[in-house]
Design goal:
The chain has 417 residues and is of the alpha+beta class. The chain folds into three domains: 60 residues, Uridine Diphospho-n-acetylenolpyruvylglucosamine Reductase, domain 2 (2-Layer Sandwich); 111 residues, 2-Layer Sandwich (Uridine Diphospho-n-acetylenolpyruvylglucosamine Reductase, domain 3); 205 residues, Vanillyl-alcohol Oxidase, Chain A, domain 3, CATH 3.40.462. It contains ten helices and 15 strands. β6 and β7 form a beta hairpin. The relative contact order is 0.15.
């Protein structure tokens, strides 16, 4: 069924029943059916975050839950579970406002936020989950609840960063920011310059203020005709930068490292934020692995080049470093379950089916915090506990055992038990 095919084609669902929900009451009915037949429950909007097949489960599709309201006075958006960030961005733009979306606006807004959410401006504004005001959720007992700082405080804490396992979030209310435009872009460098660019980046990034958010990716691009000739079928290093206001002076140390084959920076309408990372928009089968780095030393750079550099033929299209720190390192006013605040960089490895992206993250173990970001963790469910500090993990376990004693939401184990 096309309805159950998500973005990651490596995860194929074979559910016992598919429920295409349009209301919270539809969700409650599907959960009640699952409970009465002792079936697990799985949830999907866009399928970007799928990590385990929903085989034999009641698969609740939330893609039809597309309610979307922008309050320009309160600077908030109330977003249905089926909405993508692109829809929220477009709805907020006429008011000169914008949400903290990810680098690819086709991702579902709710799933992205429940997993924390690291976007192109994350070092300045923090995790998307840090700016959630309220969530409507149908819990495993079939009750529709509103979780906010004054109601269901444990659930409010857990849902923001705990990712899943507590019910089905049907909508959430998030802060919007006065961002009509964003300053940013990227530079693509040839394979011959990739090592020099990575070495320079590792020396440059730690000294940056939190007004600038950066990332660097090694991309092994396919020979697709829609790609520009300098990128088509090539290995490139892609430096990305983004800020709320122009930061040209901060770029100076990187601009003299090598001549890019393509790219540039400038002011963009926020509605064109995707142009900074240029993430793929077509569904594909991938296997993801990630780890958090406490630092990126010269030795760590050479280790990464040895396992993922341009001289290697790998079935690994993406090896990406996202700089963390800044606002990402601070607890929000209303604390939440987001993990990874101690990381300096997030390392994400995207492999094709049959590949072993774990080899790249394993090589970086000496520089790892041992943690990961849950949205990037991938399908290695045996190590899912790494996504949260121990105290956070214990509290998530306690809350989940209380809210889901029958373990209905066991698909993906997106919250520990």
């Amino acid at each position: 069924m096309n309805e159950i095919s998500g973005f990651n084609l490596a995860v194929r669902h074979h559910p016992a029943l598919v429920a295409e929900a349009e209301t919270a009451e539809d969700v409650a009915e599907a959960i009640a059916h699952a409970a009465s037949h002792d079936l697990p429950v799985a949830v999907q909007a866009t399928g970007h975050g799928a990590v385990e097949p929903a085989d034999g489960a009641v698969l609740i599709l939330t893609s039809r839950m597309r309610s979307l309201t922008v309050d320009p006075v309160e600077r908030t958006a109330t977003v249905g579970a089926g909405c993508t960030w692109a829809e929220v961005v477009q709805a907020a733009a006429p008011f000169g406002l914008a949400p903290l979306c990810g680098s690819a606006s086709g991702v579902g807004a709710v799933g992205f936020t429940l997993g924390g959410g690291v976007g192109p401006l994350a070092r300045t504004y923090g995790f998307a989950a840090d700016h959630v005001r309220a969530l409507t959720v149908v819990t495993p007992d079939g009750v529709v609840r509103v979780a906010d700082p004054g109601s269901e405080p444990d659930l409010f804490w857990a849902l923001r960063g705990g990712k899943g396992g507590f019910g089905v979030v049907t909508s959430l209310t998030v802060d919007l920011f006065p961002l009509a435009t964003v300053w940013g872009g990227g530079f693509y460098y040839a394979a011959a310059d990739a090592a020099a660019v990575l070495r320079a980046y590792a020396a440059w990034a730690p000294g940056l203020p939190e007004t600038l958010t950066t990332s660097l990716a090694f991309l092994r691009l396919p020979p697709l005709p829609q790609l520009p000739p300098p990128l088509r079928g090539q290995f490139v290093a892609h430096l990305r930068v983004a800020a709320a206001t122009p930061q040209e002076a901060l770029l100076a140390p990187m601009l003299g490292v090598a001549e890019p084959v393509l790219g540039g920076v400038g002011e963009l309408p926020y509605t064109q934020l995707d142009r900074i990372h240029n993430d793929p928009t077509d569904p594909m089968p991938v296997i993801e692995r990630s780890t958090l780095l406490r630092e990126l030393t010269p030795e760590g750079v050479e280790a990464l080049l040895a396992v993922a550099g341009p001289s290697l033929e790998l079935p690994v299209p993406v090896v990406e470093l996202r700089q963390l720190g800044g606002a990402l390192a601070r607890e929000p006013k209303e604390p939440n379950a987001v993990g990874g605040r101690d990381g300096a960089f997030s390392l994400l490895v995207v492999g094709l089916p049959g590949s072993a992206p774990d080899a790249v993250t394993a090589a970086m173990a000496p520089w790892s915090t041992g943690g990961s970001l849950i949205n990037f963790h991938g399908s290695d469910l045996a190590t899912l506990h790494r996504a949260w500090p121990e105290a956070t993990r214990r509290r998530l376990t306690e809350i989940r055992n209380q809210i889901d004693p029958g373990n209905l939401f066991r698909i993906g184990h997106a919250a520990p038990r």
